[in-house]
């Protein structure tokens, strides 16, 4: 919606009072504000994009509340810091699990909070939210109902692989094969997209959170050491790798945790290369899934992908060496999206703004 402001005599002239000019400029900026919002409601993070403003929210999809009163204590980054540190009367919850709504009321509270932070709820906007292409009808209904209950004028779903491809600038409306690997927190989705449709697809519940769990399991089974979720994620980001690196693999790493035999705090020394071994199993499952999807497509689409390579997006794209592992295993060029955490949200809002993409938006009935 655009407000047309009549040009009164003397407005914006040098003689116009500064306060009036400031008010007029603010009103003009408001008139250009978009009423279209794209959301990536992920297991690990929620990202909100508004055209002309960019990314306005990028927060962990976590909520902390009093167990007895259900009163929220923190949402987003503040709640994440409570993981493993909360008292028994404080619940720390992830209302989105494997890309679908697990706790409707908590998800609604969380999304309302994020939209208020973005200044979006007062605009009565149209909202497009990314959805796993493998979601059931019940899961899709829950997601659209969630968005409508947060104040959206209209709610649309867009399949995440297509949203990610649009957000990355791929020509998905052309007769050309595009291979997208979206590795989020709860799921990894591998898709071949052409002519605004998904030709082949597979989603597995192995992604960033699975890698964190693999790190925790490694220390528990190999060193009899228990570490928390935040520590495991930090080690994955800082020292994890998908391929050997002779220059860094011998880097010493000290890890503090709880010794299971004694129940006391202890320190374990490992080398960076040890973490790669811990991550190998979940990463190999992702590689296997990519190969399975490529086995479902036509030679023509395979030719396109061989020429253009594959696109890696989602938080998992930030794991050092993952692109090299895929290149080594698949024999294809691998391109990492410039902002892998944001591509789905950007693509969702772009689809609302571009009539050429209207067929990929599914309006809630």
Automatic annotation (TrEMBL):
GO aspect biological process, one term: regulation of cell shape
GO function terms (MF aspect): ATP binding
InterPro entries linked to this entry: ATPase_NBD, Heat_shock_70_CS, MreB, MreB_MamK-like
Keyword Nucleotide-binding attached: yes
Keywords: ATP-binding, Cell shape, Cytoplasm, Nucleotide-binding, Stress response
PROSITE patterns membership: HSP70_2
Source species, domain of life: Bacteria
Binding-site list for ATP: 185-187, 233-236, 315-318
Gene3D superfamilies registered for this protein in UniProt: 3.30.420.40
Compartments, record wording: Cytoplasm
Gene Ontology cellular component terms for the protein in this record: cytoplasm
Subunit relationships: Forms polymers.
Function: Forms membrane-associated dynamic filaments that are essential for cell shape determination. Acts by regulating cell wall synthesis and cell elongation, and thus cell shape. A feedback loop between cell geometry and MreB localization may maintain elongated cell shape by targeting cell wall growth to regions of negative cell wall curvature.
Family from the record: Belongs to the FtsA/MreB family. Belongs to the heat shock protein 70 family.
PANTHER family reported for this sequence: CELL SHAPE-DETERMINING PROTEIN MREB
Protein name (database record): Cell shape-determining protein MreB
Natural source organism: Acaryochloris thomasi RCC1774
């Amino acid at each position: 919606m655009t407000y047309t402001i009549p040009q009164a005599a003397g407005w914006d002239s040098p003689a116009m009072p500064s306060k009036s000019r400031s008010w007029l400029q603010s009103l003009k900026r408001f008139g250009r504000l978009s009423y279209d919002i794209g959301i990536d409601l992920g297991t690990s993070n929620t990202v909100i994009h508004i055209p002309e403003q960019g990314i306005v929210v990028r927060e962990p999809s976590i909520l902390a509340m009093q167990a007895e009163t259900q009163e929220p204590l923190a949402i987003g980054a503040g709640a994440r810091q409570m993981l493993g540190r909360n008292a028994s009367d404080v619940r720390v919850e992830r209302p989105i699990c494997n890309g679908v709504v697990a706790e409707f009321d908590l998800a609604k509270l969380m999304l309302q909070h994020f939209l208020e932070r973005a200044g979006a709820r007062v605009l009565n906007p149209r909202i497009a939210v990314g959805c796993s292409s493998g979601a059931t009808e019940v899961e899709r209904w829950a997601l659209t109902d969630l968005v409508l209950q947060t104040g959206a004028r209209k709610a649309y779903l867009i399949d995440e692989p297509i949203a990610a491809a649009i957000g990355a600038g791929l020509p998905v409306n052309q007769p050309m094969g595009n291979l997208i690997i979206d590795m989020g927190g709860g799921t990894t989705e591998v898709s071949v997209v052409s002519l605004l449709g998904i030709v082949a697809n597979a989603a597995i519940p192995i992604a960033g959170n699975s890698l964190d769990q693999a790190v925790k399991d490694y220390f528990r089974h190999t060193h009899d050491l228990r570490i928390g979720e935040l520590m495991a994620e930090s080690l994955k980001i800082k020292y994890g790798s998908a391929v050997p690196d002779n220059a860094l693999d011998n880097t010493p790493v000290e890890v503090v945790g709880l010794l299971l035999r004694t129940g006391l705090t202890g320190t374990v020394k490992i080398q960076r290369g040890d973490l790669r071994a811990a991550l190998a199993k979940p990463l190999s499952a992702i590689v296997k899934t990519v190969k399975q999807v490529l086995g479902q497509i036509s030679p023509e689409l395979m030719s396109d992908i061989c020429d253009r390579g594959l696109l890696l997006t989602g938080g998992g794209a930030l794991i050092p060496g993952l692109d090299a592992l895929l290149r080594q295993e698949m024999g294809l060029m691998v391109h990492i999206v410039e902002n892998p955490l944001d591509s789905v949200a950007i693509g969702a809002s772009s689809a609302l703004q571009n009539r050429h993409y209207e067929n990929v938006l599914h309006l809630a009935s």
